[in-house]
Design brief:
Layout: H1 12-16, H2 18-34, E1 44-48, H3 57-70, E2 75-79, E3 90-91, H4 99-102, H5 104-110, E4 115-117, H6 121-130, E5 135-139, E6 151-157, H7 177-182, E7 186-190, E8 205-212, E9 223-228, H8 233-243, E10 246-252, H9 261-274, E11 277-281, H10 282-285, E12 297-299, E13 301-305, H11 308-318
Parallel strand pairs: 1-5, 1-6, 2-4, 2-5, 6-7, 7-8, 9-10, 9-11, 11-12
Antiparallel strand pairs: 3-4, 8-13
């Protein structure tokens, strides 16, 4: 789905839906109150957010996992497997599983780290620990109360912040801001703080930005036809423009959109007419029909930290080194 425009303004529709948003927030709070978090006996670093849709959690989770691996830790990724049919616990095998099975984020992680999907996060943590995990990175799950977290990081997209600050469906919030931040240890602010989110925060704020990964610079100066089905497709298009690409055409799909041949073949034909390369994100690429993937250029996106020392201090605390 695409985030509706009224999530980012306090117009009439948002106000009409406000009572439903209040009920949604109460339901989230009740679920948390009734749960007893499971302690898996290993550090659990949760990378979550407070809003529905994309905020940049997955590249942040990957960057944190990379940093832990560089310390010599055996890191496993745990996530729900949103968009997949498998309930888990299941270790993701990118040579066997598809986005339809385990979700697109799980496939991305599994290329670099042992990765588990589990709708029951506590059960997922148990099998990951049994398989040798020394530390778990939980991609999403800030609102999931079933697994105890050692370090909770809330990712905020500086471009949209918390939207109109109303809970779903009146706004993008999964829970009230104060309640969500009360369980967080720090906020990770991605890109410029255009919504002045940090002005009222008392938590530590780690600044980061999403940047094109290795090989992306080769697209500079080239004509491209771009498509993306992520939380904010326009961020990907802005990244391409920042690379110096000439965007001949762009196509935005809903987050986690399940691409079919009928979606991609017209884009390939359009690019041929325009003498342009077809480009998309790594998250989109794993949802493409297998035989069409080689005809699409993938632009990797990575998280780059403004202050790596501040991140290391948080990780030290989570690992018991402080």
């Amino acid at each position: 789905m695409r985030a509706p425009d009224y999530w980012f303004s306090d117009g009439p529709l948002a106000m009409i839906l406000a009572p439903l948003g209040w009920l949604y927030g109460q339901g989230t709070a009740l679920r948390r109150a009734l749960a007893t978090p499971f302690d898996c006996g290993r550090p659990v670093i949760c990378v979550g957010n407070l809003v529905a849709g994309g905020a940049g959690k997955t590249p942040v989770a990957q960057a944190i996992a990379d940093r832990l691996v560089a310390r010599g830790m055996t890191v496993h990724i745990l996530l729900r497997g949103y968009g997949g049919t498998e309930a888990g616990p299941l270790r993701v095998d990118p040579t066997q599983h598809t986005a339809q099975n385990v979700g697109d984020e799980a496939l991305l992680h599994a290329r670099s780290f042992p990765t588990w999907i589990a709708r029951d996060r506590a059960a997922g943590a148990r099998v990951a620990v049994a398989a040798g995990a020394q530390v778990l990175v939980l991609d999403d799950g800030h609102q999931n109360p079933t697994l105890a977290k050692t370090l909770s990081l809330v990712v905020v997209d500086g471009g949209v912040g918390f939207g109109n600050r109303r809970p779903i469906p009146a706004g993008p919030l999964r829970e009230p801001i104060a309640e969500g931040l009360a369980r967080a240890d720090a906020v990770i602010l991605l890109d410029a703080d255009r919504r002045q989110v940090t002005a009222t925060l008392t938590l530590p704020v780690l600044a980061a930005r999403l940047v094109p990964g290795e090989g992306a610079r080769e697209l500079a100066g080239r004509a491209v036809v771009a498509f993306a089905g992520i939380g904010r497709p326009e961020k990907f298009f802005d990244t391409l423009a920042g690379l110096g690409c000439h965007i001949a055409a762009r196509h935005a799909f809903g987050d986690h959109y399940p691409y079919q041949r009928d979606d991609i073949e017209p884009i390939l034909a359009e690019a041929a007419r325009l003498n342009a390369a077809v480009v998309t994100t790594a998250k989109d690429a794993v949802r493409l029909p297998v035989d069409l993937r080689a005809r699409v250029t993938v632009v990797p996106i990575e998280a780059e930290w403004a202050d790596e020392t501040a991140l290391d201090r948080l990780l030290d605390r989570a690992l018991g080194h402080a």
